[in-house]
Amino acid sequence: MAYLTREQILGVDHFPTEDVDVSEWGGLVRVRGLSAAELDTFEQSRLEQRKGGKIRLNLANTRARLCSLCVVDQDGKRMFREADIATLGKKGGRAVDRVYEVAARLSGIKDEDLEEVAKNCENGQSDA
User: Fold this and answer.
1) What is the side-by-side strand order in the sheet with 71-72?
2) 59-77 burial string, b = 16+ CB within 10 Å, else e?
3) 114: closest CA among 24, 31, 47?
4) Which of 8, 70, 86, 121 has the greatest number of C-beta atoms within 10 Å?
5) Of 34, 17, 13, 9, the residue nearest 73 (C-alpha)
6) How many CB atoms lie under 10 A from the CB of residue 97?
7) DSSP codes joined into one string, the chain
8) What is the C-alpha separation between 64 and 97, in angstroms, rounded?
């Protein structure tokens, strides 16, 4: 196997997608994995700085937040805006969780990562 060149790596624009049956919503939704920059922004959104510099996990609407970033139309364009997160968060948990699980898998988000962040936050480390 040959080593990739810079041009080959930068020329690849691959975002995995998967269609998810959400019968509660009446059909299929297309879920796309996040880019590295989007993943960093999402992970940063789960952290909240408190008084005294302490960092704590912000789990409010985590599933809806990820779904809003990853649900795309047939052309690969995001369907939801940040303003839609609260409304998505009011949808049935089972349906949102099904989409979240696929979005997390396609984006490389693992529960162990969240647990590590939580552990670091408890220990007062803010460079999670």
Assistant:
1) 17-22, 27-32, 71-72
2) eebbbbbbbbbbbbeeeee
3) 47
4) 70
5) 17
6) 12
7) -PPPPHHHHHH-----EEEEEEGGGTEEEEEEPPPHHHHHHHHHHTEEE-GGG-EEE--TTHHHHHHHHHEE-TTS-B---GGGHHHHHTS-HHHHHHHHHHHHHHHT--HHHHHHHHHHHHTT----
8) 9
Pairing between β-strand 55-57 and β-strand 27-32 as defined by DSSP bridges:
unpaired
CA angle 14, 17, 18 (to 5 degrees): 160
Task: Read off the pTM.
Answer: 0.83
Residue range 24-66, pLDDT digits in tens: 999 999 999 999 999 999 988 888 878 877 788 888 899 999 9
Q: Which of 25, 115, 126 is nearest to 79 (CA)?
A: 25
